[in-house]
Amino acid sequence: MASGSEPWRSELGEEDGSIAETTDAELLKRAWRNEKAAPEILQFQAALVLRAREQIQLLEGTVEEFVENGVDDLVVSLYQMDLDRSQFLLRSYLRLRLQKIEKYMIHISKTNLWNRLSEEEQRFAKSQCYHDCRMAINPFSSNPFQVKKMIWFQSLS
Fold first, then answer.
1. What angle, rounded to 10 degrees, do the helices at 119-136 and 144-156 form?
2. What's the confidence (pLDDT) of residue 99?
3. What's the pLDDT band for 19 if we cut at 50, 70, 90?
4. Number of domains, the chain
């Protein structure tokens, strides 16, 4: 049972409202870990990515303001560190997804996984396949993987 001195704890020892108190940085970290651990590409977290981008822009503005106003260097470095952490998480999450798309392009296109991609990721997949097919297919080559990629790309057009 929760004691009077710890009103935020439930009887099970979990925090009440922990979902509401979860920051976007923590949610982005969780999405990154889930994506990294999952063998297939997961649903794109569009709302989370949009909020993370907005927060990064806000932090960039705050850091610039602090530098212009001569705020203490320690405070500026703490905000800069938070900005760098947020940028790293977002870039890493997006980079991981692009790596999966490159690696499993044909599988993703043939299954319902295609619907898990954002519009930008779908454009990337199509352009990547087009580039790979144009550069790698040689009329004298009989690489079955490249032939499958070319057939798949033609079916998207």
1. 130
2. 92
3. low
4. 2
**Cα 77 to Cα 36: distance, rounded to the nearest angstrom:** 29
State if pTM tops 0.85. no
Helices marked H in 70-118: 73-103, 105-110
**In one letter, which amino acid is 23?**
T
3-state DSSP helix/strand/coil % of the chain, to nearest 5: 75, 0, 25
Range of the domain at 132: 104-157
Question: Are the beta carbons of 114 and 108 closer than 8 angstroms?
Answer: yes
Tokens at 104, concatenated: 């499993």
Q: Is residue 149 part of a domain?
A: yes
Same domain as 30, residue 97: yes
The amino acid that residue 107 corresponds to is H
Residues 96 and 112 in one domain: no
Q: Provide φ and ψ at 9, rounded to 5°.
A: -95, 140
Q: What mean pLDDT do residues 57-74 have?
A: 93
Say what the pLDDT of residue 13 is: 42
